[in-house]
């Protein structure tokens, strides 16, 4: 699941950028062009039918569940503290316009701004995570993302593709306060998908970060163990800093033996540690993410450092998502085209660098079959996308995964 940058992003002013979790204002047309290239690469590998647009899923959910449609409108009006008269206004909108308005906050025909934009909706990774045969609906830590959570819950509840999971009781909703209440000490429940990584069918990694609380991790761990969903839940404690807002900003796995990583935290263990909880009651601790992988996953796992492991390049290129890649298959991953020192590290480890424009041109000409591509880093145009502080991993929400050998 992906989301193309929408018109709401063009309404972010410099004064409100920080409140809406953007570090800069962006040029929407170019941002959309860059995202379209990203989408085209995904479709070349997966096929059109397997790349789903969240706007379309929301539209189909509104069309499929008329009763819940009205409830959604009432709940959003109530949450946003808007006049009750807006209920009828939104109810009378055609489904397509309603879906667009709920995302952008903008009623085009009346040139009327009803709601704040939700610009971070492009980062679909944070909205939900499929863990084996269950889906975990996450809960954002920042108010600017609450409507994203709300719309995701509606899609998961109402869209036909989730019907089987819903009817089988295989949805875990972290927004249910009865099941996931704040701690007695007042610690909140928040968890975002960028802090959740499926390493294999036995291990779920969850970052304890600026956006995900330890209390939420413990509650989800208990729920997953009770439902026999996973054998090990791994809490990765990292500095609570915007530079490292999720664990996928400091490492992502790109092949069966390679992880790209921010060396000071992941390999050296700076201000971090790892706690492993097992369903059978076992518990282990490690001083770094690298130590955890070598002891529990694969002793031969190799780590490719952003910025080639040298300052100031590793800091610069971690900031511009040099550690945030999405592997479309083992050994083939997508990343931004603005991290030259990280590219050198990839090449030193046997990867070729192929720009997305060249990839798409070769595929269109019949000179390249994506299925045959191996050991390749595909770089994406990123002048505007990178300003939003999220990479290719952030912009994908995997709903179904290929079996892991």
- How far apart the termini lie comes to 24 Å
Instruction: Give the strand order, joined by hyphens, for the main sheet.
Output: 6-7-8-11-12
The count of domains is 2
CATH architecture of the largest domain: 5-stranded Propeller
Number of helices: 14
Mean pLDDT, to the nearest integer, reads 95
> What does the largest sheet look like?
5 strands, mixed
3D shape? globular
Identify the CATH class of the largest domain.
Alpha Beta
List descriptors.
about 400 residues, alpha/beta, L-arginine/glycine Amidinotransferase, Chain A, 5-stranded mixed sheet, 4-stranded mixed sheet, globular
Description:
The protein has 405 residues and is of the alpha/beta class. It folds into 2 domains: 7-51 and 116-388, 5-stranded Propeller (L-arginine/glycine Amidinotransferase, Chain A), CATH 3.75.10.10; 53-115, no CATH class. The chain is built from 14 helices and 17 strands. Strands 6-7-8-11-12 form a 5-stranded mixed β-sheet, sandwiched between helices. Strands 14-15-17-16 form a 4-stranded mixed β-sheet. α3 packs across α7 (146-158) and α4 packs antiparallel against α5. The longest helix is centred in the N-terminal third of the chain and has 19 residues, at 28-46.
């Amino acid at each position: 699941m992906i989301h193309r940058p929408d018109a709401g992003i063009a309404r972010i002013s410099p004064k409100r950028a920080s409140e809406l979790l953007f570090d800069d204002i962006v040029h929407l047309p170019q941002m959309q062009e860059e995202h379209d290239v990203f989408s085209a690469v995904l479709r070349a590998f997966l096929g059109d039918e397997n790349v789903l647009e969240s706007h379309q899923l929301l539209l189909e959910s509104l069309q499929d569940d008329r009763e819940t449609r009205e409830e959604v409108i009432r709940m959003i009006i109530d949450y946003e503290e808007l006049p009750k008269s807006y209920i009828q206004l939104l109810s009378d909108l055609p489904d397509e316009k309603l879906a667009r308005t709920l995302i952008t906050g903008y009623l085009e025909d009346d040139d009327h701004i009803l709601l704040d934009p939700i610009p971070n909706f492009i980062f679909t990774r944070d909205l939900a995570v499929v863990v084996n045969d269950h889906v975990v609906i996450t809960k954002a830590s920042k108010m600017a993302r609450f409507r994203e959570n709300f719309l995701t819950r509606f899609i998961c509840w109402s869209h036909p593709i989730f019907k089987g999971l819903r009817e089988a009781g295989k949805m875990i909703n972290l927004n249910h306060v009865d099941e996931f209440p704040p701690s007695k000490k007042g610690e909140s429940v928040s968890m975002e998908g960028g802090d959740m990584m499926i390493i294999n069918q036995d291990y779920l990694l969850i970052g304890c970060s600026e956006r995900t609380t330890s209390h939420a991790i413990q509650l989800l761990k208990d729920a997953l163990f009770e439902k026999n969903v996973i054998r090990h839940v791994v809490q990765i404690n990292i500095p609570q800093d915007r530079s490292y807002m999720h664990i996928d900003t400091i490492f992502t796995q790109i092949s069966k033996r390679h992880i790209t990583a921010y060396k000071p935290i992941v390999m050296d263990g700076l201000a971090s540690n790892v706690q492993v909880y097992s369903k059978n009651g076992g518990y282990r601790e490690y001083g770094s993410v690298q130590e955890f992988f070598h002891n529990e996953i694969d002793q031969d796992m190799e780590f490719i450092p952003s910025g080639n492991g040298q300052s100031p390049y590793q800091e610069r290129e971690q900031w511009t998502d040099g550690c945030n890649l999405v592997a479309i298959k083992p050994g083939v991953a997508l990343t931004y085209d603005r991290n030259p020192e990280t590219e050198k590290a990839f090449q030193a480890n046997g990867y070729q660098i192929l720009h997305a424009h060249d990839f798409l041109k070769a595929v269109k000409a019949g000179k390249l079959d994506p299925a045959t591509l191996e050991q390749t880093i595909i770089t994406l145009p990123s002048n505007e996308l990178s300003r939003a502080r999220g990479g290719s991993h952030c912009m994908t929400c995997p709903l179904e995964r290929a079996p892991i050998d």
